[in-house]
Amino acid sequence: xxxxxxxxxxxxxxxxxxxxxxxxxxxxxxxxxxxxxxxxxxxxxxxxxxxxxxxxxxxxxxxxxxxxxxxxxxxxxxxxxxxxxxxxxxxxxxxxxxxxxxxxxxxxxxxxxxxxxxxxxxxxxxxxxxxxxxxxxxxxxxxxxxxxxxxxxxxxxxxxxxxxxxxxxxxxxxxxxxxxxxxxxxxxxxxx
Amino acid sequence: xxxxxxxxxxxxxxxxxxxxxxxxxxxxxxxxxxxxxxxxxxxxxxxxxxxxxxxxxxxxxxxxxxxxxxxxxxxxxxxxxxxxxxxxxxxxxxxxxxxxxxxxxxxxxxxxxxxxxxxxxxxxxxxxxxxxxxxxxxxxxxxxxxxxxxxxxxxxxxxxxxxxxxxxxxxxxxxxxxxxxxxxxxxxxxxxxxxxxxxxxxxxxxxxxxxxxxxxxxxxxxxxxxxxxxxxxxxxxxxxxxx
Lengths: 192, 243
Known about the structure:
heterodimer; A: mainly alpha; about 0% strand
C-alpha cells in the first residue's frame, strides 16, 4: 500500500486502515450514489451500474491512487470511465459472437464532457451531503428556518411570525447554518 | 414612550452580516431589526448578495435524483460487508433439477448472454429477458427447443442412407488407391542413349589414338584426352538421366 499523506488524517488516509470501518461506510455513503448515478446514465441496467459502482469503490480501497500523480477526482473519474468502457467493449464482443446486427458499441471518447458532468454532479452531491450532515446536527426548527429563508426565499418577518421567533433570531440561525454547511463542504473537499 | 432607535447605516449591517450575527452583540439593534422593515430588507439583501449563500442555495435548490433500489441495496451491502475488493465471481448456475434460487435472482440469458434480472412470468407465459425479450425458463435456459438440436431419428431417412453408402464407397476406393503403385509415364531414354554414344565414341577415340602410329604426345592429345572427355560426358548423361 502506498504511503498516505500524514499532515492530517483525511478520509482517504483513513480508508487505508482496514480496521476503520466507519471511514469505509462514510466513503461509500458519500460517493456510492454519486458514482452510481453517473454510471447509470451510461449503462443499460440498474444492476450493471451497481456492479460498476462496487468495482470503482473497491479500486479506491485497493489503494492504487497516488496523490502526487494527480487529483483524486480525476483519478476516480478515469477509473469509472474505464470500467464503463470495458463493460461496453465486452458487451459488443458478445454481440459479435451472437451475430447481433443491432448491437451498438458505445465506446465514446467523452473525456471532456464527462469531466464537466462529473464535476457538476459531484458538487451537487457534495452540497447535499454536507447539508444532510448539518441537518442531523441542528434542531428541526432551525433547519426549517434555514430552508424557508435560504431556499424558499421567504422573508425573515414571515418566517419569524410562522415559527414564533424574533426576526433577528431568524437571520442569526440562517447565517449560522450557512456557515456550518460551508465548513462541512470545505472539510469534505479537503478529505478527498 | 420609548423613542424609536434610528436606522443604523448600511455599513453596520454589512459588518454584522459579515460576522454572521455571531455573539448577538447587537444591543439595541436587535429590537430595532425586529421592528424595522427597511432594515430587514437591507439585511436580507446583504445576506443574499453573499457568494457563499448564493452558491449553497443554488445547489440545494436542485433536487438530487432519487436513489434507485439497486443502488440502495448495494450501498447497504457494501457498508455491512467487509471491504474485500472487486466483485466476487458469480456462482455456478444451480442444477436444473434443484431450483433453490431466490425469486428475482440474476441469470445469464441464453440468447443475449447478458446477466439480467428476469421479468417474472405471468400466468402461463414464460419469463422473458428484459434485454432481448426472448423467453427463458426459471433457471435461465431457453424455453423453446433450439433449431440446431440434433434429431436422433434423422439417420433412418432414405436420403441419409444413400449419402452414407456413397461416402463408404469413396472411402473404399481411397484405400485401394493407396495400395496401388504410382502411375509412371514412359519416355525415350535420352540420358542412357547419350551416355552410350559418348562411351562408344570414347572407345573409338581411344583405339584410334593408340593405333594411329603417332607419337605418345599426339596419341594422348588425339586419343586419350577426347576419350576421357567423352567418358565424363557419358557419365554425366547417365547420372542425370530421366528416371
